[in-house]
Amino acid sequence: MELGDLKTALAGEGERPWGGVDWNLASEGAGDQGGRSMVEDIFRRHGRSVQGESRRICAMLKAMVAALEVKQMEPKPAALFAALVLALEGIAAAGDGAGSPMEVEARSKDEAALLYLLEEAASRMQMQAVQMKFARSIKVVCKVLETKVVVHQPEKPSTSANTGTGSSQTQCAKFGVGCLSTLLCAHDPSNFLQASSAFGLLLSFSTDPRPKVRKRAQAGLSQVVRGMGQGLGQVPGLGKEKGKGNAPSLQHASRMVFEFGEQSVRELVEVTKAYENIHKEKSKKEARKTFEHKLQLATTRTFHVLGALKEIVGYLDPTEVLSILGLLDSLLDFKEVLLAHHTSLVLERFFQSSQLSYTMKPQALATLLQNLIERLLIIEDLMADSDIASSTLNMLLSGFRALNRLDSELCLECIPRLFHQCLHYFRRKDSEVFRIKVSSVLSELMDLCITDEAVRKALICVQSGDARHKKQNPVLSIITGVEAMLTVPYQDSWNSAFQLISKLALVVGDKHGALMKPMLQEVGLLAAGPENEWTEAIQECVGNAVRALGPECILDAIPLNIEDAVENGTEANSWLVFILKKNVHGASLEFWSKTLLPLARKVGEYASQLSSGEDVERAVLLAALEHQIWQTLPSFCRWSSDTAIGFKSLARSLGAALQNREDLRNYICNAITCIVKQNQTVLREAQENKDVFDGQSVSGEGSEFDFDESFPIPEFYDEDFAKANLDAVASFAKNFLPLLFNLFVSSRPSERGQIYDAIAAFGTITDSETLDGFYKNILKRMANSLQTIQSEGDKSMRDASIEQQGMLMDIAAALVPGLKREALEKLLSIVNVSIVYKDSGIQKKSYKLLFCMLKRSGDLKPTSILGIQESLSNAQGVCYAPAKKNRLLCVRAMISIIDSRVEDKEKDQETMTAMVTEIVMCTKEKNSKTHKAALDLLADIASSFKGLESVNDGPLLEPGPLGFINVVAGGLVASHPHMISATIVALTRLVYQYSDEIGPEVVMDVENAVSMLLKTKSREVVKSVLAFLSMYVTTIDGATLHGQLPKVIESLLIWANDTKNRFRLKIRHILEKVIRTLGIDEVTKYIPEEHLPLIRHIRKQKSQEKRKREGSVAGFSVKTRETAGKRTTWTYMEDEANDMGDNVTSSKFGATTVRSSGTAVRKRARRDPGGGLNDLSTSEPANLLDNREMVKMNARNMPSRGDSDSEDDIQFKTRKKDGKLIIKDDKYEKRERGSDEEMDDRRSVRSGRTARTSRTSKSGATMKTNRTSKTHASGKTIVKTKGTKKLEPFAYWPMDRKMLNRRAAKRKDAKKGLLHVVKSKGAKKGKKSNR
């Protein structure tokens, strides 16, 4: 290879002598990415490849570097660039003459390697350096590529010989096109003439029939045009230098692109016309075939041109883009599906480009969109294909978005044309996908273009009554089109229509709901009558309309008509009441009092009148309807828009209903609670101190009424508005509170929940002066009740006083937020006495009251706080189990109070440690609520833990969960096993919840400390440790678990041979979790020989489960359980409950066999009696198309082992006179018995299946006349009669699959007892012996 002119080519580069390349290090990728040289980078990518292409590239690079070493030059990109250009020139000159095919093949491979290296070198050079060598380098690259251009020969079939599609030729063309595009990116902007021929060559390759070459050329073309259009910014693929604007070059290049596309389109038009003439003239078959091939080539070339335009149309010069749009418009004249589809893709890229605003004016763009709508949407085949139709609609959507950015009003005027053009396809039954797509497009366009001003103008047009203006208004035109979709011809598209109505309602808003009235009336007519396939969609549509337009507009369009239905027998729209209940928010409370309240009273009167007559059925229906109307009251209170006014007009009626209607009290109390809670939420967001513990964040059972926080808070709800609402409600406290007190006392305990919430709501907003009068009366009665309780009087009187004391404490707890400080101090004295009283109910209510008082700890005196602290300490030993949950809440509140104090920190730390110890001990409580509350409180304390400090104010434990875990871990060294077990349970929850924060190292440290306790003799401690390990193996990642696997298995197997407390079952479950993570083979490596039977048992069980899954419905096992992901909570009781549900029997292999107890089976049977297709325990029927539903249904209907097949259909009776067993089957009751032996046999088999598993109740007479013998091998029941040795004709032997077993021992076991049934002892001779 001649490189004599290398120094001349590198003039001015200043290369220095260089020491060479270490090829081993280069192939290993030595050095970091930033400092790696070009040589090292290429060898890192291709040095270890066995592909011939990569090996040739490496060999060529070594040759280049060796040539540079001869000249004592470092192989920098500039030096390599010059050397590669010289090498290409030599190969190109040598290839001018003819050569053999092998020589041409070898030359193409060398050229491909050189072109690849040249592209790499050019992309690493500065732009000015490439521009200096641009003319020479681009010339040689074009010369090489010109020999690789495919020559189309329509008269001959396309082969690799005449198209140049060999692998080496294709590889060379692909690398050459990449190199050409990289060089073009660095051309001189002021001299596009020297780059024009190269750009034209790149354009020609963009339609190359070879896919790899064509795609690389189109990507390079996009790169070049984008670089020309960049005013500023880095030129793609070239160095790190910013380029200058190339406006002149972009104009010339855009013109060339247009001419190139015009040539392809013109060729397609000419060939198409010639082909049509050939068909008309009925020419010879060969001529038609030639023209067909020409047409195919022209069409393919046009597709490739469209593919190239899709990449560059957004970057071309705006003046030439308009001409290109004309070409695209001419392609639509063919009305060919694929051409229209690819044209749409190009137009979509154009609409999405940022240069659109500089290219077209809004009116021109609107005209183009209307033209596209009229020309594309009329092509039936285009709209029949779902993918192509979606692509077309996406293009139109992009166009409307662009037009909306330019002129929103003009965009809105164009939408009706699109909508009405698509109406035709809503009537077709084969356009479901298109209907869904066009519905989503229209919904987005409505949301994008319809503004409040446009809706206001539409409402003015409706009110004016001018028909001409109505037709011209775009909003009204859209509404008219949607309304037309509700007619019968569009029945298949009603679901889409309901979605569009929901979107329209949201866009129109509640202020202009009159526009939707005619449409909603049509929806109401469709909803009338019995349920149909559109009922659910209609209700969802009306529900969305209620949320968007408000109940006033909906009831105006779709009236309830209840009175007319009762009086005249017409149909009422009672279905609307439930929709109002679920969807009303932000409505007028005064509207409910004026409209729905009188209606509810009227319906109640109708119900009472009918109940006194003979029409009881209608009376019951009307009474239920009255309740449904009252149930809408809390919904109208949900973020009500006029609470201050509406509640005043409604207060008297609510009070009367509370006093006189026991069945309506829950609705009224829920309404009051809803108003107060929601308005307090607004105030709390403005002024709440979130550092104060309020008890609602942990173990909070919440209110009886959920006012559905999914509804957003209206914008008009500010602090002043909420205060006004609460003041209006509080002004009626003196009227409602006495009434609520009386109702609370007189109600049954199960009915006091809502009343208590209402009292608590009033207690938080009523002023202290008003509450003071009620409080004094309550306090006096509490003191009297407490005195009666402590006296030694009549037991019945004392029990009544205890019940009264509990109710008074509940009322006092509800009023605590509004009491004065002096009242709190007096109330505290009663609580300190009550918490130690020996009654669980009194203790529970006392702690609840104390917790409410601790929420107001800032209003209590410091001495009172110390008194509470001392009382809690003294009462710990006498606290009953039902009261411990509320006591824990008080302890948590005291911890927050103590933690906020600054004096005497050392003593406070000791007190807090004692309280934390109490919470830890409560994790072992059998009461599930107390257990869960303790775990939740520990997690809450850990999240807010501030750390502990020593006496010298030095940090002792860091804040956060890690420091609190260290505090709790101190219990591991306790002296009593119960404390150690409780500490492990607490650590299990804390580690599980905060594993991500504390890190895997801390988790492993805790596991090391806990696992050491497996060597203790306390089974309680071991049980807790196994629960911790069960959590541990699922919390850490697989890599960490693999490293800890030997130690974990060694710890587990300590108790593997234990036969008590189900430890073996727990260990097996833990091992199964490890196996699911690491695999059974990996776990088996660390299992000792004596414990391998356990692994074999697990492997066998897994294979059985796999066979069951493969053989069950839809590939799922009936017993497959869906496992939930990681939760943020864990309770020790769950692990314990899993063990208590099964009876466990140990096997000889160290494994266990789990059998469900009969009691548990009966309980499950009572909970799930049927489980058929229409299971009444669920709100919806079973989905027969869902495989998982079918599996669950089959699991419910399949009989378990040991259960009867159908205990309801088959009955067993014993005849008293002779002791014969009579089997009565309802399915065969109507058949004649006669002498049908086949039916008798079938009946015997069925009865035998049932007799195996049924429990037959036996009377005394039956016990005297029957003897039942059970065989241990098969578990079957054999029935014999007493008093005769002859053959019993009613005796039977059930079929057993063991009779077909190939093993003789199995068949022998199945035949045991058979002789007692089918053979008489006296029959030994003759034919009778064979009976």
From TrEMBL:
GO CC annotation: nucleus
Q: Where is the composition biased (Low complexity)?
A: 1247-1262
Lineage top rank: taxon: Eukaryota
Spans annotated as Disordered: 1141-1183, 1195-1214, 1223-1284, 1302-1331
RRP12 HEAT domain ranges (all copies) = 430-746
UniProtKB keywords? Nucleus
Pinpoint the RRP12 N-terminal HEAT domain residues.
Answer: 32-355
Q: What is the annotated localization of this protein?
A: Nucleus
Q: Which Pfam families does its entry note? A: HEAT_RRP12_N, RRP12_HEAT
Biased composition range(s): Polar residues: 1143-1159, 1263-1274
User: Main localization of the protein?
Assistant: nucleus
Q: Can the keyword Nucleus be found in this entry's annotation?
A: yes
Q: Which Gene3D superfamilies match?
A: Leucine-rich Repeat Variant
Q: Where is the composition biased (Basic and acidic residues)?
A: 1223-1244
Into which family does the record put it?
Answer: Belongs to the RRP12 family.
Record protein name field: NUC173 domain-containing protein
> Which organism's genome codes for this protein?
Chloropicon primus
